């Protein structure tokens, strides 16, 4: 007897599936077991696949791929169904997948046996591992589908995720999502179709005799298990669908918050009976798809609103200003709409100068953005009228205070919730002289970066935040930028984001500010990356509250011609009679200027002498003290020169104080500690100065600096 006859006698047949050609070869017994005439035959895979239960087909595909990867046999049970989807028998297969060497394709030949197995009772079938695997496969699919759809952030991504879902046993080869626009049905998106295939369905009336239109009207799903069913029920639109070569269709409603928002279509190239389990899976996917599309639509609307607000509220830096370079960044991080209260601006002034403005309205919501827009317009108006910086901020404070007091409250909103304040720094810039007259309303101080790269926080006089008091005063401080110097203005988000306070945030930013860069755009981007780039995860601050705040940063540089001049650093500040506490700020600023000085004792000596010189002016004269500190020369051979000028013509005299005297030691200290010092009369007043040399050869240094 032949082998086939022996196998047929025990109810066993031979088959092989060639995935490269998509054909299946059966002997007579195997053909009978799958419901074909009992004769040897070769059939297309599309003809054989509908005879295998869809859920089992998904399991077979998984088992075969595993067997190929592991080099083992593929063993599985599968149910054979008739044309109506009813199970006629259960067969067991043991096959050996043999990979084919097909360039660029994953193909194989699956060769083995088919053998009928004894059917189980319904109760026993419910307990079989096969049924449990199928149920677990369906549950795992729905969990994966729900997670993937929940993570999709746009309509396009939702459609892509839906098209890639491998439903347990009956994956569609084409999807289309329809939306309702008034009385018309439109195509939101599709997957698995060629470009242009959707045109006949793009725009049709809801009354059209089309399955998706009927589903959108009624909210009831439609299942079409065969082309005949489609043609009989929807004869008008059948010619449009017949060209796609599909054999089964499912049209399901997309329902969100109890409202039918559209429909989705799943088309199958193989026949699907749409059993209760399959309908349950499709309905569940439809509900998840509707929710995902709703979320994606809301997110896209918010993004569009956010971008629109940003475009409307973010100013341009305007035309180039001769002698100056300006760069800016705004990074919204605090709110869901990606808008907040931070802003910057550059305003041309009537006197030919420009004004730089940077500010932060309290809050990270839409109302903060709205107040910011109104405040920015008000500041531009006051500046354009020609007011000085202090007057501009005073008027802006009254404007914001009146604006918040007149704010209409909601029924459940407290008046304290409506009160908002804003911090702001306003600087009037003279491009020719390099001066900035700065008025500050509760805002962080600016940072000045010298031409040699030294970054120093420039302490300036300030007042209360805008909107706190109607009649707040805002003193003005003048900052002078030398050729090549840069000033950085920012909101507190650049400093405090990531668990930092003002001290640790400044420590994090200082290396970025002192790194040599020729392009201000590069500097602005580096500052943002230090806070939000990959490296920021390793520079988190000590605070538990790791808040994320909006960021605005503005950098301005006074350009310098390319020369061989040795770069230096310079700082100047005024110490008023009414502000003796500014002496401490002068000491701090001098120490920052000498942060890389070779001799720490010389730095201590310089601080001591500055204190003595400034204190003498405040005690023995009626005017203010003007302090100027300048460092010149190459590292290791630098010279520090500090001058303190006042308006008094009375020259100081060196005294020899007694042991218990509380004053009179200033000039004695300078004689002991300074490498050189002196007193120079001026047209009005005098200037007391001292010099310290980093090198042990002060004569050469003095000559080089003169």
Q: How is the largest sheet built, in terms of strand order?
A: 3-2-1-6-5-4
Q: How would you state the average pLDDT, rounded? A: 81
Radius of gyration using CA atoms only: 40 Å
For the sheet with most strands, the description reads: 6 strands, antiparallel
- Kindly, what is the distance between the CA atoms of the first and last residues, rounded to a whole number of angstroms? 117 Å
| Stretches with pLDDT under 50, minimum 5 residues | 120-132, 658-662, 698-706
By oligomeric state, this entry counts as single chain
> How helical, in percent, are the residues?
25-40%
Strand content: 25-35%
Structure classification: alpha+beta
Shape: elongated
Number of helices: 21
Secondary structure: number of strands: 28
